[in-house]
């Protein structure tokens, strides 16, 4: 029978839900090989001292805080809501959503102050209370266990506080956003002790792998040939470009140039290169950037 090994890092991930597929995909990209999760409570990694434990997302901050597991991957929203004592290691750039206050489209509530004396239904009472307190709005918080979007139609409340990502659930229920409380994404969290105990070296290796995959996501590798005369102009467009290569395959008077470009500036850079007369640009995805 498979049992959890004491020396291994224990990482809790959501068993079945919105974060599950992207989390497992991310771990695979980091090079961790483990059994399929389907019938399991946990999987042992074949090529790294790591156990993956599958649980409800709501339990992850507490399990990490209490040291039942060393690490967890969870929405930042649950950290804000549960105020667990954990160390946030990294933002993982998926699972994006926002916690918002929404009201029926036809509602007379137009601004935050209009919520005074009204009922607000939510599965996020702690975040809601803190937000309303910050803005000195006295409203009644009605704690519900799910499906906040139907609460106004049922007459339970005048407003809701819920997570939204695409906005389609709000639209389908004739709700509009009054304001956003915070933005959230998946994060990796750790128990404070794992940063200093016997597992800290494994943790360091794991974080290096996580960072390598995350950095790669933000960059593209580009390669192109250009006339040598263009070099001064090209250096202004791509300040971090690698030394130009003059290879036997390059036309006389031309050089081959490669560089790593940040995703945010990618299209602007490529368009400027085209305007300066670069005929063809090859773009390659980067798997990992190890620093
Ligand atoms: O069973 P378990 O307790 O593990 O899962 P769960 O049902 O409590 O959570 P789950 O799987 O719904 O969400 C897990 C995490 O995904 C959340 O804690 C967030 O960090 C993140 N996330 C990202 C979201 C959303 N986007 C999201 N849109 N969590 C929930 N929603 C819900 C929202 O509550 C609303 O009902 O999706 C609906 C709105 O979606 P849109 O796309 O129509 O706006
Ligand atoms: Zn949950």
Description:
- It is a single chain.
- The protein is an alpha/beta fold and 291 residues long.
- It has 3 domains: 9-95 and 186-216, 3-Layer(aba) Sandwich (D-Maltodextrin-Binding Protein, domain 2); 97-184, Periplasmic binding protein-like II (D-Maltodextrin-Binding Protein, domain 2), CATH 3.40.190.10; 219-285, Alpha-Beta Plaits (2-Layer Sandwich).
- The chain has 8 helices and 14 strands.
- It has helices at 20-29, 60-65, 76-82, 125-134, 168-172, 200-217, 231-237, 266-275; strands at 9-14, 42-44, 50-55, 71-75, 87-91, 97-104, 119-122, 140-143, 159-164, 175-184, 186-190, 219-227, 254-262, 281-285.
- The strands form 3 sheets. Strands 2-3-1-4-11-5 form a 6-stranded mixed beta sheet.
- The longest helix has 18 residues, at 200-217.
- The radius of gyration is 25 Å and the shape is flat.
- It binds phosphoribosyl ATP and zinc ion.
- Residues 56-58 line the site of zinc ion.
Query: Sheet with the most strands?
Result: 6 strands, mixed
In quaternary terms, these chains amount to single chain
- The ordered H/E elements are EHEEHEHEEEHEEHEEHEHEHE
Under CATH at level 1, the class of the largest domain stands as Alpha Beta
Uncertain residue ranges = none
**CATH fold naming of the largest domain:** D-Maltodextrin-Binding Protein, domain 2
Q: Any guess at the CATH architecture of the largest domain?
A: 3-Layer(aba) Sandwich
Q: CATH homologous superfamily of the largest domain, by name?
A: Periplasmic binding protein-like II
Helix content: 25-40%
Strand percentage, roughly?
25-35%
Shape designation: flat
Number of domains: 3
Q: What is the strand tally?
A: 14
Bound molecules: phosphoribosyl ATP, zinc ion
> Class by helix and strand content?
alpha/beta
Helical segment tally?
A: 8
Q: What is the strand arrangement across the widest sheet?
A: 2-3-1-4-11-5
